[in-house]
Amino acid sequence: MIQFVLRRILLSLPVIFGIVFLVFVLTRLLPGDPCRAALGERATAAVCDAFIHRYGLDLPIPQQFLSYLGQLVTGDLGRSIRQGRPVAAILVERMPVTLELTFFALLFAVIVGVGLGRLAARRRNSPLDVGTMVIANLGVSVPVFVLGLVLAYLFAVVLRGTPLALPPSGSLASGVQHKALADAWGMTDVTGFPRAVMDFVSHMVILSSLITGQWAPFLDGLKHMILPAVALGTIPMAIIARMTRSSMLDVLGLDYIRTARAKGAPERIVVGRHAFRNAMLPVVTVVGLSLGALLSGAVLTESIFLLPGIGRTLFEAIQGRDYIVVQALTLITAITYVVINLLVDISYAYLDPRIRLR
Amino acid sequence: MSATTTPPDQALVLEGPLVAHAPASLWRDTVRHVLRQRSAVAGLVLLGIIILAAVLADVLTPYDPTDQLFGVAGAQRLAPPCIHLLGCPESQAQWVMGLDQNNRDVFSRVLHGARVSLQVGVVTVSFAIVVGTLIGAVAGYLGGWVDNLLMRLMDVLLAFPALVLAIFLAVTFSSLDLPLFGDPLFNAMLAIGIVSIPVYARVMRASVLSIRERDFVTASRALGESAGGILFRRVLPNALTPLIVQGTLGIATAVLEVAALSFLGIGAQEPTAEWGAMIGQVRNLMFQAPHLVLFPGAALALSVLGFNLLGDGLRDALDPRLNR
Description:
The structure holds 2 protein chains of 2 kinds.
Chain A: H1 2-29, H2 34-39, H3 45-54, H4 61-73, H5 87-122, H6 127-141, H7 144-158, H8 181-184, H9 192-202, H10 205-211, H11 215-252, H12 255-262, H13 267-304, H14 310-319, H15 323-351, H16 354-357
Chain B: H1 2-5, H2 8-20, H3 26-36, H4 38-55, H5 57-60, H6 106-142, H7 144-159, H8 162-175, H9 184-212, H10 215-222, H11 227-263, H12 275-281, H13 291-318
Helix pairs in contact in B: 3-13, 4-6, 4-13, 6-7, 6-9, 6-11, 6-13, 7-9, 8-9, 9-11, 10-11, 11-12, 11-13, 12-13
């Protein structure tokens, strides 16, 4: 197992290197004068020469790439041209929002998707099965941004005033206060890395209010999370539902299921225990693969529901031509995706020992 | 004796099927398989309607998609749908999907949007298939370090979440001051096309690897056929099935992703009638005029659904392993 993990990690290193290289090359293609973009149009030639020399922009490209690599390894992602602060600080603030959104979207996708798929497989070719698969087919075809806007309209306008009404934007209602971890625990004098971790967690409104016992922001945060999570999670939900159904049908046709039935195991146990566990293997892969779709969809979902996450930051950076931020966020998203895929592969090997031997 | 007791008409019935079965060409067989798939038929019908709408857009719509209707009875910004049959006063002009933020007829824009989206989907995927097939064929056929280099490059492209890389590429292209990259919609299509290359490269490479060692390929090599001839005349026809299936599903993704880029403002621009751009421009007006999102949104979802259903149906029909 350890050997397998090490080999997978080694295999993903060239990919990560390739990502860094591609992002570097593409950013160097971007036109414009980096000095005047950073210091303003009226910077003098002497100031610009000093600037270019200080940032190593007069060095040969391979050397620039190496020093860029060096910066990355030490965690320096550069400084936002628009916001005038390090990208790392922006990440600490925005990344948690996306993580929380992705988590709830995935939760919705797995619970509903696996549930629907199981139901459809158990009653194959019944109206229930057909209905579920129609939902699944529609689910993969409705664009995230259309679904998001329609959900927002439905729950914030049509159902306004009913108990089903849900807020269409933001992560907390305007009157609801949410104390950061450092304030809630009276640890405002903590600085450095521990403080960054605490701030990171604080920006996950739902998680941080749960662990500090602030129930009002917790409930309000959950309420604000429902629509974005459903909008973002619908495509993976549909894919998971289809995968669960076909995988369950495959497994239910196997000999050991017939054996289980023949020895008199109740249908509930046969489906729920014997078949379900084995049928979940391909579903795990699909869950991992849909994380890419979730990260892509986060750009759209966050900009519709006005959530201050990575996706919306990326979009704003693109509009503001803040290339350093675009570069850093593209890089971070891609590397996150590679790492998640690595974890999925490893968990897959853990669940199915046959994989390790290949 | 039993033969003589058989009435003549029954004997004819027995002969019937033998005659009907005689010519079974590959194509007719394929069509028969495809038409047996419920989802493929549903997809074909849906796409047929959308293609008809796109082709006949000029005939079916009362206004030009970019015409701003001023001075027409009842025309006002964000006017909701007005259908005479459903009780809209006859004194008003009729617009079945309402008017948009610039007094344009949404119905005309939605139908003309079908043209844009179908073209975008087909062109983008064709580009990806041609480039991907070439890369996959070269990698699979040559093997060795060429194969390694090309496929690792594909891995890198696949390592990005598709839309994030597409956004990055589209923005990069648009900011390059080159005449080739003048049209943002073209840049968006190129970006989505590049992002979808790896899928086809992998499919083609896998086919090449499995077909390369077959006897009929060895035979043509022994007969002195060139590498190119073997690739195009022997390998490619045998790799078509997975390419067609992937391509059909790929059009659905491409339509969706180009619409997403346009929605974000880095694809089709005003006044082009493109569904994603139409929705993106009115997202803040959604609560006042939901028809501006609902109609293009439904059109977009139905086209994507059509390609998805057709692709799924084709896969089930063409993949012999699934014929249970």
